[in-house]
Amino acid sequence: MSDYISIQRNGNVALVYINNPPVNAGSLAVRRGILEAIELVEHDSALIGAVLIGAGKTFIAGSDLKEFGAPLEEPQLPSVIKAIERCSKPVIAAIHGSALGGGLELALGCDARVAAIDSMVGLPEVTLGMIPGAGGTQRLPRLVGIPKSIELICAGTRLKAEEAHRLGIIDAISIGNLADFAVDYLRTLGSKRQVLALSTPAAETQDIEAAAAAALKAGRHRPQVIAAIDTIKSAASTPADLALAEERRIFQDLRLSNDAFALRHLFFAERQSSKRLELDGVPGAEVNRVAVIGAGTMGCGIALALLQAGLEVILLEQNPTALQTGQERIAQEYQRRVAKGRLSQASAYDALARLNPTVDWAQLSAAQFVIEAVFEDLQVKQELLRKVEPLLRDGAIFATNTSYLDIDQIAEAAQKPQQVIGMHFFSPANVMRLVEVISGMYSAPAAVSTGFALARRLGKLPIVANNAFGFIGNRLYAAYRQQCEYMLEEGALPSQIDQAMEAFGMAMGPFAVADLSGLDIAWRMRKARAHLRSEGERYCRIPDLLCEQGRLGRKTQGGYYSYDERGNRQEAEEVNSLILQESRSKGFTRQAFTQQQIIERALLTIANEAALLLAEGVTTRATDIDLVMVNGFGFPKWEGGPGFWAANQPLSKLNAQQSNLAKVSGSTFKMGDLSVFHYLHNQPSKRSA
Ligand code: NAD
User: Fold this and answer.
1) What atom of ligand 1 comes closest to residue 372's alpha carbon?
2) Hey, which of 381, 401, 431 would you mutate to test ligand 1's pocket, going by the most ligand atoms within 8 Å of its Cβ?
3) 3.40.50.300, 3.90.226.10, 3.40.47.10, 3.50.50.60: CATH of 5-256
C-alpha cells in the first residue's frame, strides 16, 4: 500500500503490517496508511477482518514525538481509532516488542489484543508532560478500573505481557507464530468488541482517592498528573464522546506546555547520548566479572548495581573488619528487598552467590574490570594502582570512582595508563542512574567504550566526559554551591535559599544537600586546593567556620541546620548569627533577596559554568550537561536542565544578569558564552507550535 503499511492476506483475513523502522513510531504516514487499510478491509467483501501487526522488531513503540512540538496533521490518532471502531469487521492488534503511548491507545481501540510473551505495554505520556490523548484515559479504566488506571498512567508504568494479560489489557498471550495466532484468534472472535462499549467497573471512593494521592505525591503535583487523574475519573461519570473530546483538548494544551517541551528535550538528549560518535568503531569488550575495591558507601552500592545486573563481583577490602561491614550492608539490602516483596528469596540467594568478598589480592586476577572506591586521596589511589596493576590479567581495565581527583595523575602510577578510566557513580550507586565515564589523557578509546557498555549493562545512563576538575556534575554543583554561599554573605539565610531552590523544583536545596553528604568532603577538597586560590578570588569562609566548630552536617546532628531526633531540619540560630557576623566582618550591607532573585542567580551560575565546560571541551554536548544535572543532582526534569532553562530565557536578559554576576563574584569569575544553548531551539523537541 505504501512504504509504511503493507497488507498480506491470510485467507479471508488482512494482515496489516506497520513498517516504520526502527521502532514503528506512529507518524503521520503510518496513521494515513492504517486509515487507508481499514477502508480497504471494510470494502473488500472477501475479508472478514484485519490484524494490525508491526513489521520488524516491534509493534508501535510510541507516537512520533518529533511531531508533538508543531500543529499535528490529519489524520490524527483519534480519527484512526474511530475508523477502526466504526469498521463493521473486527480488527485485532497483534503485539510484539512494545506497544507504548499511541501504540497502546491504537491497540485499545481494536476489538482484541493478543501479544507475544516477551512484549511490553504502557502509557508513558505523563512522564513526557502530557496525558494520553487518543482515548487511553477512557479505554484503560474500562478494562482495569479507575484506581489501577491512575496508578499505571500517572507513573507511565510499562507492563510485561503476562501482567497486562492478568489485568485484562491483553486478551491472549500468543503461542507460536504471532501473526498466525492473531488470525486464528480473529476467526474465533466473531463480532465487534469495542472497549468503549464496556462500562467502567465501580470502585470505592477511598481506593480512587488513595491512588490519586499516591500519584500526586510521586508526580510532584505536576499539571499533567493532576489532569490525568481528573480525566481518568471522568471515565466513570461522563459519556464517552464528551470525555474523549475533553481528553483530546487537554492533551493538545499539555503537549505544548513547558513541561512537555522540557521532557521531550530530555528524551531526545538521552537518545543522542547513547550514540557516541567518537566511540563508534571501537567496541567495548563484554565484561562479566568485576572487582570492586573498597567496601564503603560507594563500593557496596556499586557491587549491588553489578549484582543486580547479573554480574559476578569480587569485593576486596584492606582488612577483614571493613570487609565484613560491607558484606553485611549488601546482605541487609537484599533482606530489605525480599521483606518488601520486591525480590524473591531465590533471586537474593542467586545474587549473593555471585558475590565473592575477600581480602586476598590475588583474587583480582579473575577480574576483567576493576572499579576502585577507596578513600579520596591521590596518594592512596596511586599506591593502590601500583599494587593492583601487576595482579591483573591482560586487557583488564582499571576504573576509578574518584569525585574530584585528576584521573591523569592517578593513571601516571600505572605501567599501562591507557587501561585507566574514570567511572563516577552517584550515591546510592545501586539506585542513581547517572554514571560519568571519564576519558583521561591516556585512556584508550576501547577502555572508555568498555566502561560505557558496562554502565549501560547496569541499566545506567552513562555520560562521557573528558578529565577535568569535578568532571561535569561536581564542577557545576561546586559553582552553584559557591554562589549560594556568596548569597549567604550578602543577605540570605540557608533556609531561604533552600526553600527557593526547592520551590523551583530541586529535590533538595544546596545547604540541605551539604548537610546530608557531610560538609567535611568539600572542606577537605578546599584545603587540598587552597594553593591554587589566587589573589582577588572571592572566598566565603562560612562552611569552613562551620566545620571548625564540628558542624559537619547530619552526621554530627548539625551543619547549616540543626536536626531533631527524627531527622527533621530546623533553623540553627547559632549558624544564622555566625553568617550575620561574617557578613559584617567582610563589610557587606545585608540585602533582602526575593525567591526569584535567588533562583535566577543560582541557575545562571550553573548555566555559565556549563558554557565554560563546553568551551573547554570537557564535554561537546550541551544536552549531556542537562542529563547530568537532572539524573545526578536533583535538577527538576520538567525544567529540562540548565541548558534548556538558559535556552528559554531571552539572551539579552541573561547577558545583563551575567554582567551583574561577574561584578559580585570576584575578579577570578569567568564568563561563559550563554548563546551556546540557544541552538536547542532548533532541536526537534522545540519546534515552533
Ligand atoms: P568510604 O570511606 O565509605 O569507603 C572507602 C572504603 O575503602 C573503606 O571501607 C576503606 O576501608 C576502603 N579502603 C581504603 N583504602 C583501601 C585500600 N588501599 N584497599 C582496599 N580498601 C581500601 O568512602 P566512599 O564514600 O565510599 O567513597 C569512596 C570513593 O568514591 C571516593 O573516591 C569518593 O570520592 C568517591 N565517591 C563518593 C561518593 C559519595 O557520595 N560518598 C560519590 C561519588 C564518588
Assistant:
1) 29
2) 401
3) 3.90.226.10
